[in-house]
Amino acid sequence: MEEADVVIVGAGIAGLATALALKRLGVRALVLEKAEGLRTTGSALSLSSNAWLALDSLGIARKLTTAYAPCRKGYVTDIESGAIQEVSFSKSDMGEHVFRVALIGCDGVHSVVAHWLGLRAPIDSGRWAVRGLAVYPEGHGLNLEIQQFVTSGKRAGFVPLNDKEVYWFLTSKFSSKGKDMARDPELIMKEVTDNFAKDFPRQYLKVVQRSDLSTLTWAPLMFRPPWDMIFGNLSKGNVTVAGDAMHPMTPDMGQGGCSALEDAVVLGRHIGDSIIRNKRFVGGDQMAGVLERYVKERRWRAAGLITGSYLSGWVQQEGSGWFTKFLRDVIFYKLLFIVLFSVRDYNCGKLPSVTSNGTPRLENNPRKVD
């Protein structure tokens, strides 16, 4: 019978990052995943400055910084008027396994653990998204800049990831064709090029047409209402949630993966501080208290990200009247964009450095320990 101090349900970005954080603290974690292997659920992960700070705390940022170049700016083109806005991104079932202390639900948007905690199921935003990866074996020759296109009820764009791969997306209001498209990548491609994106620039269509069909996905955009985050039970005893299981959000600010990495570091930091205080890894009421402190720190942060993401998507896609265009082009892009996206400049803290006997390595972690 295999023992673990913590059981993590789900081997997505939140689950694996949490397992890594606990490993660095010397905590035994068991990760459970129902999928038999890796599968494509998108083609890219946006990593803002807050995510890189979390990755640095996890000790793996240096391994990733050389993989892809950063995008410093992007352009948003209004298809109807032709107006172009420049936006800047610079600134910085458990089987024979037994768990003794805690269970962390990292099992995604439709989380069983979140349901057990009493959280209501996420709701549909009324929009869906198609994502894909275009491949250019000889190189695409594009600048490393984000290109985005908006028109009534639709938003699309592409992001060069390196010199041979380009991630693209298209979001739109609900369409009854979605359910048919979901499991048929060829149908997804046909509907995007012949229908949904037919009025977008030829450059965008060329990117879509170069897609590896195995990377094409269609999915409704789901989110947890912020008031459920604020008033809901995000932990109960020795059970809590992280990542999409805690705070599913629309992708309009690119913060889903980033916030999952934050969760891993914050949870690890609180568990590490507990190890230091108690000179050992503890369970029972003390672990319940640790998870309560983690939830207290994450509750309002996650609620804000959910709200900002939803509003960002709503403003950019809602209608084509003069007022909504003014709201989007003047109020949002020129004024609110910087405010909303400043959430990226957030430091979730460092993991404490703990010795085998539970004492802090003060030379590597100068924070005062009470």
- Number of DSSP strands? 12
CATH architecture of one domain: 3-Layer(bba) Sandwich
At the fold tier of CATH, the topology name of one domain is FAD/NAD(P)-binding domain
Low-confidence stretches: 92-99, 362-370
Mean pLDDT: 83
Tally of individual helices: 11
Helix fraction by DSSP (H/I, runs of at least 4): 25-40%
Distance between the termini: 37 Å
Largest sheet: 7 strands, mixed
| Tertiary shape | globular
Structural class: alpha/beta
What share of the residues does DSSP label as strand, in percent? 15-25%
Give Rg in angstroms: 22 Å
User: Which sequence of SSEs, written as H and E, runs from N to C?
Assistant: EHEHHEEEHEEEEHHHEHEEHHH
CATH class of one domain: Alpha Beta
CATH superfamily of one domain: FAD/NAD(P)-binding domain
Strand order of the largest sheet: 4-3-7-8-9-6-10
Summarize the entry for a quick read.
This is FAD-dependent urate hydroxylase. The chain is an alpha/beta fold and 370 residues long. The protein contains eleven helices and twelve strands.
Characteristic key phrases:
globular; monooxygenase; 11 helices; FAD/NAD-bd_sf; FAD/NAD(P)-binding domain; MOase; alpha/beta; 5-stranded mixed sheet; FAD-dependent urate hydroxylase; single chain
